[in-house]
Specification:
This protein has 14 helices and 21 strands. By secondary structure, it is α/β, with parallel strands linked by helices. Helix 6 packs parallel to helix 7 and helix 8 packs antiparallel against helix 9.
Amino acid sequence: MDSKPVVHKKIENKPGWQNETVFYQIYPMGFCGAPYENDGKPVSRIGKVKDWVPHLQKLNVGAVYFSPVFESDSHGYDTRDYRKIDCRLGTNEDFKEVCQALHEAGIRVVLDGVFNHVGRGFWAFQDVLKNRERSPYKDWFHINFGGNSGYNDGLWYEGWEGHFELVKLNLQNPQVVEHLLSCVGGWMEEFGIDGLRLDVAYMVDQNFMRRLHGYCRERRPDFFLLGEMIHGDYRRIMNPEMLDSVTNYECYKGLYSAFNSLNMFEIAHSLNRQFGPEGWTLYKGEHLVCFADNHDVSRIHSILTDKNQIKPLYAALYGMPGIPCLYYGSEWGAEGDKKDGDPALRPCFDAPVENDLTEFLSKLGKVKAESPALCYGDFKNETLLNKQWVIRRACQEETVLVAVNAEGSGFNVNCGHHGPAVELLSGEKRELNGCIELPPYGVKIYRLG
């Protein structure tokens, strides 16, 4: 096998590419309609993604983030083998063809790196269950042979946050680290992947993340490393030695809560705390991954009390600092409630639906990708009211105002700019005389000057 990772012709080797990119998350097991439990029956399903490429292009998506694709016990986060595509999805060759199709369309590929734990069916853990103290893999896990487990294994092991179907790996064991890195290298070579999202990165061994960073960057200087971070100081793992970005759960909550309570102050406060003009703000200059929903939470169309707010909410998502990520199906307003269980959040859709919302998101994606200010600009709350909000994003090349109206009545909101401007969603040129006219649930994005 060639030791150099694949870089397809339409994918430019450009460090920082993610900062100008709209991401799209697919949960493959649900997307493809695979059985929830691994039945061991090989069925080629993953090729379905290729049929969605034109839809992704219409949305101006630049990267697909795949939730787990490797052989697992059930939902994908309980890995059996990091080197083999799950038989319920197809073969390695099937997935390679998917990656090639995406790359040929100019869409990068990011995989879920589930390195904190494996499933009970993981080959090395099965060897420990069989051979106990004689197993050469006994130190790959945190095991007490004098204890017992809920599965009556005759030994105790550490699970992930009390879930003993997920066996915690010992990431301080050099053999474990070498195995995982060799698998990542194999993914880079075989599939040409462009990045990884680290599952539960908030608890992954930091020395392992340093090793992973060095390993990937040596092979691809533009390789993107993202971590799942739910709370705490994001810079603990988002730094030059570890990860490029993390998930912005603080603003995920602030976004839907602000619209549901008609209190734009909540999301504006979070963003000002993270990116505002004051010198003390936490993450100025960083690019966090922002989202309205994902495979672990209720879909945004189900969360919103007033469904008419969906467009201004997405406009705020694309207008705030960060890397926007859509979750498959939510671009047309699919429903899904966490109280109905995870499978309700991860359904199979026969084909993409295109409607007024997808058309709006297509325009937003184009505006985002073509605007230096929206990708890199400073952030300021220009005007902040309970139901209306104007964001100012400014860089050397341009200044952009993003104005949203969360209520069903029109409103003229102050913007502090007197002069010419171009509305980027429509292309309309007009003079702004200190205010922006917003229709009910309206959105306006102006480039000033």
